[in-house]
Every structure is written in C-alpha cells, then in structure tokens.
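Colleagues,

Please find the record for the two-part complex below.
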Amino acid sequence: AQSVTQLDSQVPVFEEAPVELRCNYSSSVSVYLFWYVQYPNQGLQLLLKYLSGSTLVKGINGFEAEFNKSQTSFHLRKPSVHISDTAEYFCAVSGISGKSTFGDGTTLTVKP
Amino acid sequence: DTGVSQDPRHKITKRGQNVTFRCDPISEHNRLYWYRQTLGQGPEFLTYFQNEAQLEKSRLLSDRFSAERPKGSFSTLEIQRTEQGDSAMYLCASSLETGASSGNTIYFGEGSWLTVV
C-alpha cells in the first residue's frame, strides 16, 4: 500500500520569499513521485515528477523538488514566489499501474 | 488544444436520482482514470481502464457506481440512486502507457462537480 502525507495544510508566505512544501510518502515498492497544482474550480496540472536518476527535479513555473529516499520525502521548493502561485498543491505517488495516491494538499497563499 | 474534457462540468441532482458523467481523454491515450475529490481532500482513486478493459476498482466504488469505456476511447461514470455523500468533484485523467514503463504524465480534466440535494 502507498500513502502520502503533506505535512502542512496551509502555508502563508510573502511575495518574493522562498517557500518549501513538505511531502513524505510510504511505499513497499519503488515509486514515482509527482507534484501537482490546482487552481480554484480547475483540474490538476503537473508541476514536476521524479521517475529515476537525479534526485533534484526541476519543473514548471520555477519550482523544483528533491527526492530523498532515506527520508522518504519529496519536498517542493521555490526560491521566490509570486502572487500567481497562490493555489492548492498536491503531492502524489504512483507505482507500475500508474494509479496515483494523493496527499490531502497544501494551500499556498502568497501575500503582497 | 485537445486535452481531457469532461461533461457536464456541474450537475445538481436530487437524492435518489441517477447521474452520468462523460470523459473524453486525449485521443492517443490508452489509460483512463477516474478520481473523486471532496473539499479539503486530495483526489481519491476510483477506477482505471487500459483501453476498454477495467483493470482496477477501488473499494470506494460501491455497487451504485459503474464505469465503462466501451470502445477504448471515451468513458462514462454512472452513479445510481445518488446520496448526499456522493457530492464531490469527479476527475478524469488519461495517459499513454507503453510496455512495462510507467510514470508517464497523467493529464487531468477540469472535473465534473456533483451536488446532491
């Protein structure tokens, strides 16, 4: 079985400040890891994914994440956030089937 | 842009009625997934198809729920005798899976909101 824990339900941050959204996972098999963003009343958009190789993954909109196998973490970071980054962010894990297990989300609110 | 499209986007129905949602995946995608999302929660897996074959169903998918993908293209999700607890957003997603590899990008539709009153 797979599970995902997003450690912060809400993260308020000022514009141009750095941000980290934390994600821990558990799985008995090798996994693929993803971060998605969801804007109000919309579906999910892929930010980045880790399949294998380099543990530092770069995605769209200036986001990056680091896979840490020993700590079973996949934290999302951005060095300088914008107002437009305000959204819900979901961490997800999937296996061979492609079926994904999602965390409960982190609401990122960027304040001016 | 021919992304994943879902219809209807919003549905309000009375308890006990049946509802059906349709999903049109990206045309060359062979995998199609259904998820359910309630407020404040992440999406929960319901079921998925490889072409027309339904390969897995979640225990969340009670007998009142049925999904089909008859020709391996579009899919429908029907909920019979709706209950207030069925109120949620139903998300469809698709991907192109080749061979034994996975981790390919899953593309989500914008969801179908269901409100049961």
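Chain B touches chain A at residues 4, 31, 33, 40-45, 48, 55-56, 91, 93, 95, 97, 100, 102-111, 113 (CB under 8 Å).

Comments are welcome before we finalize the supplementary table.
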